[in-house]
Records
---
Amino acid sequence: MKKLILFISLCVFAILEVNAQAAWIEPGPTTDVRAMCRIYVDLSKVTNTSLAGLTGPFYIWTWNPRELPANDVNVNGTGSQPWKNSNDNLKLTADPTKGPKVYYYEMIPTDFYGVSQGDVYSKGISFLVKPKDGGGYGAPDLKTEDLNIKVLAPIERDTIYTLPKCAYTDEIVTVMYNNPIERNVAMRNLDANDCYLYAKLTLSDTTFVEKASFFDVGTNPSLKMTKITEGLFTGQFKLTMIPREFFAIPAGKTIVSAQFIVRRQNYNGGIDRSVGNNDPKYFECK
Amino acid sequence: MKSILNFLLLIILFSASFISCRPKKFNDIGLEPSKSKGLQANWILSHAYVIDEAATSPDKLDITSFYQTKALPTLIFTETTFTALTLGTVKNYFGSGSGTWSFDNNNYPTSLHINYSNNVKDTFLLGGTIRPTDSTLKLKKTFYYYKKGVKNIAYSYIWEFVRQ
């Protein structure tokens, strides 16, 4: 009995592995599904061989994260026998640069399926590939097996974040403040000379470290953040450091987590500080 | 006789026009530039970047100004030896600072191997070709971390050095 279970498990893993190779998403596997993506399939690697003798055209037939209703422009098939009449909008494009039997379908998943990005990440994308007439109705089906693509969510950055996200006590770390998306609108469009960082670090021995108290931050020039005026990060502020030196962290101790708040040089209450960034940033990736 | 002369004149003119239309031969482009010789120089840091490799579209952040708060690292390559002057720099990413070097491929190098004097080895990716005429040396190094035994990509540094 144990051998039978082991055998079945191995078969399941083998099938999953084949599927993993037969279908994938680009630029993924970590992909922003609100942007244009390509769903790829390699028909030379699918396990159902009913398409082996066909040269196309082929169509995607998809139901996850959401099966589109009959009135949708991208519904899988049309007419009284949709399986025998795939929607021309769903025709795959060959990509001979990736292989002789590699095809893709281009879409913005959230737009195509009409779902949230969270739905795509939690449910993945399920589909199969078929010719326009998928057979059936007494004849053999012409289709691949069900193909499932797991899509990983990109890093969601807070308004204040470390770059890299994987920050270490003894490595170069930049604390970034994405001022253009600050939730406290009174803090947006901060002047280049008006952005200061407050940091409270929790160390490995559970003690805390501050460079300056929250109310003294504005008089400490080393805590002034620099406005970025060109490139991808334009409008954001940064402060680069090696935390051990910058915060004078004793040898033998490391940072466990850090809480960051950004404020104006002159603080006159809540309107002069960032909001909604109380989640600690964890250090020492492991 | 006159018609013969005219005929010869026509042939000469016709030939001359053909010869003048022939493309010039290409000049010899010479030997392929030696990448090994291209690397042999003193190089001082000009730009530094960090890339958050865990991000969807890894963003390159310029951290040159942080490096400029202290001494800039200098790399010295001779025919076989490597020396990194890192004293007083913000951080040393070049091990013990001296040793020997080699390319993965002498004609078309994509990475630079350093064998430090304490026998520690390290590898940097080359961000561009490095002929004697190239004025910039681009090195990239990627760092990883392990979570529950699984290797995960964390971040990369790109350092650009200018020839001295």
---
Amino acid sequence: MIAVLRLVIKEPTGLFGLVLVTFIVCSALFAAVLAPYDPVALNITDRLQSPSLSHLLGTDQLGRDLFSRVLYGGQVALGVALTAIGIALVCGIVLGMLAGFGPKWLDKAILLFFDTIRSFPTVMFALATVALVGPSLQTVIAVIIVTTIPTYGRVVRTQTLSIKSNEFIKAEQVMGAKTARILIMHILPNIFGPLMILASMDIPTVIALEAGLSFLGMGVKPPTPSWGSILNDGFSLIRVTPWPIIAGSIPLILITLGFTYLGESLRDFVDPKLRKNF
Amino acid sequence: MLLYIAKRTALGVIIVLLAVALLFCMIHLIPGDPARILLGPRATPELIAAMSARLGLDLPFPVQIMRFFANLLRGDLGMDVITNRPVVEIVVGQLPYTLWLIFLAILFAGLIGIPLGCYSALHRNTLFDRISGFVSVSFITTPSFVVALYALLIFAVALKWFPAVGAGDRGDFLDQAVHLVLPVFSIGLAWIGYLARLVRASMLEVMEESHIRTARAFGLAERRIIYHYALKLAILPTVSVIGVGMGFLLSSALLTEIVFARPGIGKLIYDSVITRNYPVVMGSVLVSTVLFVVSTTVSDLINAWLDPRTRATL
């Protein structure tokens, strides 16, 4: 782990990514300590203020402190991303292994299922789901899980297929090892590295998706702060003040940039061949 | 090749059918009655029953799905429950706006991104290459609706250079073009970065291949080698990336259309979700899904035509 970190920070972009991610993750984790105000407390007399020493990023139309809302919004963004990607990973691993190790018809069926899921443009699929079950953070998480399973599933399947044909797996089978043992003891550890990299590179996409859906009013319910809902407030106030848009977009841009650079340097670490071109 | 075309097209059709079936099942398996959702919390049971009958929701599930597919084959996507117009008519009316937006965004991104990537590859590891790499990644990671919000804020609200809302007067070409500038910019920006990095990577790969070395050995001018031999090959991967990226493009078009209050299929879906007009939601999601599947199929076919090795994978 420390060796990985050392390699990541050797590249300037890797270090840059790591610093950005650490910065935003810490600010979200310690939001309760760092936030100067209650993120949902109304203060109508101080509404629509520009940044000042008492309100670092100004206030919104209800007088809520934008800096505090941005800090708490980070909890929503990271919470959604980690939950959704975690569950999607587990489902992807199970389905991908089934496809790779199971009978041929099952493989075909699972691949077709993946292709079908991937044929929906994500945001439109999310809106169709919201139209049926109503907006909530759970709906957003569910949509993200369903739409990202195929990505992980496909990688797991390909890796399983290539490891399956190795001699040591055949030897295990000859010695009478059960399929479950082979999958858990031999295949899983071998696919774990690439999957983690894929997952870390997916975090920015998922955070942007959550923000986009909350921006459309399809995600978190008010008054819960989320970067997307802050941007939505900013959109309706665009002719009055630029600050909510600036406040909501800065952390969003920083975290997606940070995770992308971090993910790329991790990828370079695992597969140095890719470094040559990118 | 013919076999591949047949197989790939068949796969595309199967995927569309499955996607439609999945969408249809979603309506029925998810708890909650569409008629009730549509009419809101204060609807009487009689009203709900009447609406269910109108939408055909009171029939048994297998009958409903057969009916739905039969109607689909005739090009009938049902009726808009609010205006009582056919859904197909509404969707087809909105589609050109979105298609133009996406097409122009890709064109804009290609015109800047491809030369940028090519230049970076030829001046590898220079300051220019490093800066362009950093800028490209920043463009890729910034969500398109954030770009759209800033474009709206800076160029429409603060500087008033471009109009903020709508698609311009029908028939007035210049007005429509002016209304397209900011939305096209918002969607295209990420693709500039994407195409630049893609072309740079594939250009570096192509330049190391033996036919380029041979061309050099023959003493061809460097310019000719680059533009005539290398670049032609290096922009091939963009074809498949754009095909697969259609889903992303449609998603960012949706958000951009809402920011700029532009007509289009994305805004249609959003508005229908808000008014709970679920036949329109289903119809327009379906049409965008078909669009996405068609574009991935076409890009796979083009790829197979250009690179026969990929034909064996299906």
